[in-house]
Amino acid sequence: MNQPPAIVFREKVKPSDPEAVRLLVQSSGFFSQVEVEIALELVEEHLMKGEESGYSFLFAELQGQVVAYSCFGPIPGTESNYDLYWIAVLNDFRSMGIGKEVLQRSEQIIAQRGGRQIYVETSSRDQYEPTRSFYKNHGYGEAAQLQDFYAVGDHKVIYVKAL
Amino acid sequence: MNQPPAIVFREKVKPSDPEAVRLLVQSSGFFSQVEVEIALELVEEHLMKGEESGYSFLFAELQGQVVAYSCFGPIPGTESNYDLYWIAVLNDFRSMGIGKEVLQRSEQIIAQRGGRQIYVETSSRDQYEPTRSFYKNHGYGEAAQLQDFYAVGDHKVIYVKAL
């Protein structure tokens, strides 16, 4: 019996990544059209400016297809804190532990760069309960809630993890 | 006896404003070099892209000199919330009520654009006690504190005002 194909990780951003990220982020159903556009812009910003952009990436590929990714970077004006801006897994590849591995490898990269704390933000809506559980299960604690941030009744929940 | 010269307000950004903003923000002594650079970048971003940049401005001029300014814009991904990114008064012109007027006029502009809540962030350090009092005196309530955000012992305090 053959082993399942291994996941390949890469940090280098390729010109085909904006489109890969669009497919990925859209497939999850967790992001609005505005958010999809923002996710794309960050990839394009990196393609133009490299690490200077402030956005770093980790891509997970399976047989050449991008199946998950994260986007993170130092928070300007802070000593050594990082934002995890995005983490998403292609819908057909969820619940296989890929998101966990992308998260942990992203944390390792941030730690190697001297990061002290990682912040992530998500919505309080029911739809995002799996997202919140994902963070809580990986050592992220709730740091704050901003009431009615995204919309009335839709709060922003901020999590933080000390490395 | 002559009246003191009146303050003139304008929203249009001029090519000379990045330099004016640098002087202003540096003079206050409240901002780090990194923050000064960020303040400048937002003005330049507006000069390049206009309102598309997401950054709007209000400048207060006295006899042609920019003595105070604010920078604000809609928070992407939110329904109608605004960030007040910057507000600063040239050091020699502090304690004259100019900051208050810039703040109130900025709030009016945001309200006219349909803004529902305004967020501002500052540091928990003693040095920023006047900043925190300024916001509290103008109807901003503390929404959250992120511990050790800027550095160890230097927390981020988030204020919000409903319009």
Report on this model:
2 copies of one chain form a homodimer. Chain A is of the alpha+beta class and 163 residues long. The first copy, chain A, folds into 2 domains: 1-115, Aminopeptidase (3-Layer(aba) Sandwich); 116-163. Chain A has 4 helices and 7 strands. Chain A has helices spanning 17-28, 33-49, 98-112, 129-137; strands spanning 7-10, 56-62, 65-74, 81-89, 117-123, 141-151, 154-162. In chain A, strands 1-2-3-4-5-7-6 form a 7-stranded mixed β-sheet, sandwiched between helices. In chain A, β2 and β3 (65-74) form a beta hairpin. In chain A, α1 (17-28) packs antiparallel against α2 (33-49). Chain A is globular and about 40 Å long. The relative contact order of chain A is 0.14. Chains A and B meet through α2, β6 and β7 of A and α2 and β6 of B.
SSE layout and pairing:
The structure is a homodimer of 163-residue chains.
Chain A: E1 7-10, H1 17-28, H2 33-49, E2 56-62, E3 65-74, E4 81-89, H3 98-112, E5 117-123, H4 129-137, E6 141-151, E7 154-162
